[in-house]
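**User:** Hello, beginner here. Are you able to go through the protein record under this note? It all follows right here:
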Amino acid sequence: MSHVILIRHGQANTAARDERNYDRLSDLGWQQARWLGAHLRGSGERFARSYTGTLTRHVETNKGIDPDCVAETIRDPRLNELEYFTMAQLFAEQHGQTVPEDRERFIDHLPQLFGAWKDGMLKGAPESFDNFENRVGEALHEISAGDGRAIVVTSGGLIGMAMRVTMRLDMAAFSHACLAIKNTSLHAWQPLSTGLALTQFNATPHLETPDRQFAQTHL
């Protein structure tokens, strides 16, 4: 088993209201990724393995980071995000909860949406909550069983689910974790004999200087 670092993608197309249009980095997202890559190389970080989901924003973020890695990047669809926009539209149609237009409304909306999804109250959802939970757990534990440090570029919902799987978070804590995760933030797990332990959450050392704090984004 080996250390695993999960990274959320850079800022995507925040003006989008569907999965297809959201799935590309903004100019700021590209810059966040390049800054993170420079930080990792400057600190001497080197990885034995590199993974991304198959979404465009994952692949673009990994390209911007350009991690110092001894192996080719593996693209694994199990590392893809839940389809928030698709499920939000279903939630609106079936339960009258409109898709949020700002972060404050999003904070209220996400836990409600996740609750309905988990309880099987979203007819036509792209996948079940249990399937999402299982694929995240399988991917995380498979990657952690490999040799050497691994870097994984993925999405906020998946990172939140990784926390739920490894820390046994209830639904409220899972939702809050997802809401807190910043673009290009780092999250690290260390293998122990009893399982995986979270050792770093939501770190953005590449964005902490005064001239870069504007780039600490959530959406």
